[in-house]
């Protein structure tokens, strides 16, 4: 499995994103099954839909919602109460890090489901001990 983070969704769908060509190639590899099932969360999608709408309007929001509905492979995980609490504990236990709460929920879910890597440009994932793609 591979975790798909906000920065990857954004790069894939925001036409002006500098990383868009690389995001498109990486996502194509993911869809072909190279890294296993792509996994994302409702919190990541919340961030992504909001960011896309603020930066580019509704068109990329519609494209992402269509992609998610049409993709037989993307697995969406909902952040439940236990994950919420574990994420808050993680955030509070690491005052040395500037991780967002959404990042903490992602890290907790990745650890719980044994996902070793993330499709992201957010280096917080590497700081938390995960491999990131595309690699720098």
Annotation keywords:
globular; 136 residues; 57% helix; Rossmann fold
How many angstroms separate the termini? 20 Å
Count the beta strands.
Answer: 5
Tell me the fraction of residues in β-strands, as a range: 5-15%
The total domain count is: 1
Q: With helices defined by DSSP (H or I, 4 residues minimum), what is the helix count?
A: 7
What CATH calls the topology is Rossmann fold
Read across the widest sheet, the strand sequence of neighbours is 3-2-1-4-5
- In CATH, the architecture is 3-Layer(aba) Sandwich
Average pLDDT figure: 95
Unreliable sequence segments: none
Order of helices and strands: EHHEHHEHHEHE
Which bin fits the share of residues in helices? 55-70%
Radius of gyration: 14 Å
Question: What does the model show?
Answer:
The model has no long low-confidence stretch (mean pLDDT 95). The two termini are 20 Å apart. Helix content is 57%, strand content 12%. By secondary structure, the protein is an alpha/beta fold. Helix 3 runs antiparallel to helix 4 (58-70) and helix 5 packs across helix 6. Strand 4, helix 7 (124-127) and strand 5 (131-133) form a beta-alpha-beta unit. The radius of gyration is 14 Å and the shape is globular. The protein is built from seven helices and five strands. It has a single domain (2-133), classed as Rossmann fold, CATH 3.40.50.1010.
């Amino acid at each position: 499995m591979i975790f798909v983070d906000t920065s990857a969704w954004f790069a894939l769908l925001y036409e002006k994103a500098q990383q868009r060509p690389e995001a498109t190639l990486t996502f194509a590899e993911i869809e072909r099954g190279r890294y296993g099932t792509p996994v994302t969360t409702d919190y990541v999608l919340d961030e992504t839909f909001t960011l896309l709408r603020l930066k580019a309007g509704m068109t990329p929001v519609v494209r992402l919602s269509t992609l998610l509905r049409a993709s037989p492979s993307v697995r969406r995980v909902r952040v439940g109460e236990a994950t919420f609490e574990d994420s808050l504990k993680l955030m509070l236990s690491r005052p040395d890090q500037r991780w967002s709460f959404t990042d903490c929920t992602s890290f907790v879910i990745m650890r719980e489901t044994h996902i070793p890597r993330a499709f992201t440009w957010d280096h917080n994932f590497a700081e938390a001990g995960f491999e990131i793609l595309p690699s720098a």
